[in-house]
Automatic annotation (TrEMBL):
SUPFAM superfamilies according to UniProt: Thioredoxin-like (SSF52833)
A GO molecular-function annotation: peroxidase activity
GO BP annotation list: cellular response to oxidative stress
UniProt name for this protein: Glutathione peroxidase
Taxonomy, superkingdom: Eukaryota
CDD domains membership: GSH_Peroxidase
Amino acid sequence: MASATTFTISSPWIFAGLEQLWTEIKEKNPDDFVILGFPCNQFGGQDPGTDEDIQSFCQINYGVTFPIMKKIEVNGDNADPLYKWLTTEKPGLLGLKRIKWNFEKFLVGRDGKIKGRWASTTKPESLKQPILDALAESA
């Protein structure tokens, strides 16, 4: 995720779309749905702030209320174990086992299986139906 970047400043639809998904789906599925944002400074140094700075920036500038986690690495030897697992279990295009850019998205079902992976350019609203399908199948 990138908070204070050219990508997000020119594309506020990312945070707005994620926030809309969060509020719409969480309202009907309060115990079964969460969006987690993981800041990462590996893509051109675009998240240089502290964890608190990043969270505040997202809340003030984009109205984000979903949880923003601590900054992590998503690629390389120091990649967070969650991202090592996500990219191994659900490789990207052409079997790519790394995160290509900010705002790559994963959907994990209640059963712990990865239901989908989407590129950074995928609009959040296009994830609504896959999320609802995942919630329905594991109800």
